[in-house]
Amino acid sequence: MPTIVITGGTGLIGNALSKMLISNGYDVIVLTRDKNAGNAQVVNPAISHESLPGVKFAAWDIKSQAIDAEAIKQADFIIHLAGAGVADKRWTAKRKSEIVDSRIQSSALLVKGLKENHHHVKAVLSASAIGWYGADRSIPSNKPFVETDLPDSGFLGETCKLWEESIEPVALSGIRLVKFRTGIVLSKEGGAFPEFKKPVRFGVAGILGNGKQVISWIHIDDLCRMYLYAIENELVSGAFNAVAPKPVSNKELTIRLAQCYKKNFYVPMHVPSFVLQIMLGEMKEEVLKSATVCCDKIRKAGFNFIFPSIENALNDLLRE
Prior knowledge:
The two termini are 33 Å apart. This protein has 12 helices and 15 strands. An 8-stranded mixed beta sheet has the order 4-3-2-1-5-6-7-13, with helices on both faces. The protein has a 3-stranded mixed beta sheet with strand order 9-8-12. The protein has a two-stranded parallel ribbon with strand order 10-15. It is of the alpha/beta class.
């Protein structure tokens, strides 16, 4: 079976994707900064990770721009997920720089590795985000964002633009390049969903601001299946929105989550904008931003969602 090299493979998406690839018979090598993962030349198959059984690990160092040459030589496909978490810390000037640099420099290292080593990589699948688009022009939006829309001029829009440009040399070298502009990923293992769920556990449906802002989301399993689909279908190329067909408002998501989790034993409560400002700083604008994003392009390419609606997704995520 083909070998898949993954950057960012121990994060939320990378972890789930590695497991799905392994279960489908693929060989997986995760690039890691762990110095115990072998030297700059050799993949060490003896290294394991508790949450990623069956996965091999290989070393790379973004700062020094060093990468395991053997991993590149073994790769049939590369999935590029690496990048500092956008929502992990408050957006200071230093943190913004880390968010951008981690994406640009990791892409540069992959491009360098492909340029300097003989390889047989058939495609590179790179993460991006719907932050590319900015906010809806109106709420509700009568014109969802599509892949041909220009990037927003704000921080996330500029970050996504630089992110996608940094991996573009792959396509210029003749390798098929797929860029997934990912929405809010819903997973019980981490990310946004546990944060949505926290107040509901105490019987509070915490609606952010007025709750009208639209959330373009995707179930973690559908996102992983989308990457797998792109690996196995040579005609999938270019940018695609990785979001479910039915976006929902923050209020609808919160109320439906409360209903599924607590039945009728919950109290709706709006979290005012000034409270979010105190808690999140500049990131408040992203929490309150409405972004209605269209997934028609990936569906027309033949991909089918298992979780097209928030009801489907919540029923699965709340199942014990």
